[in-house]
Design goal:
alpha+beta; Butyryl-CoA Dehydrogenase, subunit A, domain 3; Butyryl-CoA Dehydrogenase, subunit A, domain 2; 8 strands
Length: about 375
């Protein structure tokens, strides 16, 4: 389904995947995608294999196909979409690792086994203002590394076999570390009770003299707010618009609202596809993990801001269309309104945050 030969995603296959995720959505919202069966569904449809190189047991789908699929997942279940985006980030880093790491870890991930996740927010957005590294890596003298500190945001930590993370080193070496979740000294705190998406089982993870299983050297570190984040915002907007369309069946006056949201989503989707098909802004050196493709950082950030704005507007439109019923806990409009707020805080570069704040304040 998701292969290098697939220049255009198969709409029927993606629709079937979306329907399957929707059928599991209530259970996923309560238990998480690892327990509800959503991750198994992604594997059975070939989506997980699409992120993995062919020589490691995957099908290595093109970037546009993967972005389209991520948006489709987010449209039907944002809990699953957030979890798989973190899984995919880990896979991208592992794919840039040495041959022994690639061959040992990626084939199982392509099959949907031994789930993994990332703990990278401390390198991009979380706790950067404190002026000291949240997670530190120190060589211990016998060829191993020791990790000490905290990862403040790890989705699915207690449901994954490994965490791929980055830490500050004494010489600023660009290193990632693969840490088994049963490693000595690793403490996974109980999942956070969040405004929305608590079923992603996002936790604070603490490290005390933890030895990683694998070390991966890279030449380009992580950056907040990639194209996958924009794809999830687009999918969330479409999910909310779907509800407006449902209300419009009995209230034709809402048709123009739904049509306007559809037009905005189509514009963003076209721009996202173009960004995914363009060459990288900076070509990474050999051995670096594949980077999300984009024209320029400014274009990417602007696109992310527009997708976030659309997700928020569509969710508010869905809530307004649902009237008082939508304000009751458990109604789809209530859930969509809460979930849309994720994009204000998750992997949000400063330029995107500033753009959104200016919009809220009505200033240029």
């Amino acid at each position: 389904m998701f292969t290098t030969a697939c220049s255009q995603p198969d709409p029927a296959a993606i629709a079937a995947l979306g329907d399957g995720l929707a059928a599991l959505a209530d259970r996923t919202a309560a238990e998480g995608p690892w327990r509800s069966g959503s991750f198994r569904l992604l594997a059975s449809h070939g989506l997980l294999a699409g992120f993995v190189p062919v020589d490691c047991g995957g099908t290595e789908a093109d970037e546009t196909t993967l972005l389209t699929a991520l948006a489709a997942v987010a449209e039907r279940c944002l809990t699953t979409a957030l979890a798989v985006s973190q899984w995919a980030s880990a896979v991208r880093i592992l794919a840039g690792g040495p041959a022994e790491v690639r061959s040992a870890r990626l084939p199982a991930l392509a099959r949907g086994e031994a789930p993994t996740t990332v703990g990278l927010s401390q390198l991009t957005t979380s706790r950067r203002h404190l002026g000291r590294p949240a997670l530190r890596a120190t060589p211990d003298g016998d060829g191993f590394w020791r990790l000490d500190g905290v990862c403040p945001w790890v989705t699915g930590a207690d449901s994954s076999a490994t965490i791929v993370t980055g830490a500050a080193t004494p010489d600023d070496a660009p290193l990632f570390f693969v840490v088994p979740t049963d490693a000595a000294g690793l403490v996974i705190e109980p999942p956070l009770e969040m405004l929305a998406l608590s079923a992603t089982r996002t936790s604070v993870v603490r490290f005390a003299a933890v030895r990683p299983a694998d070390v991966i050297t890279v030449t380009a570190g992580p950056r907040a707010g990639g194209l996958a984040t924009t794809a999830l915002a687009l999918g969330a907007a479409r999910g909310a618009t779907r509800l407006v369309h449902a209300e419009a069946r009995s209230r034709p006056d809402l048709g123009v609202v739904a049509a306007g949201l559809d037009r905005d989503a189509a514009t963003i989707a076209a721009r996202l596809a173009a960004a995914g098909a363009s060459p990288p802004a900076n070509t990474a050196a050999a051995g670096a993990p594949p980077q999300e493709l984009t024209a320029t950082p400014v274009d990417r950030d602007g696109l992310r801001a527009e997708a976030t704005s659309l997700a928020l507007r569509a969710a508010q439109a869905a809530l307004t269309a649902a009237k008082g019923a939508g304000f009751v806990r458990g109604h789809p409009a209530e859930r969509l309104a809460r979930e849309s707020l994720l994009f204000l805080v998750w992997s949000c570069p400063q330029s995107v945050a500033t753009s959104l704040l200016c919009d809220f304040a009505g200033v240029d």
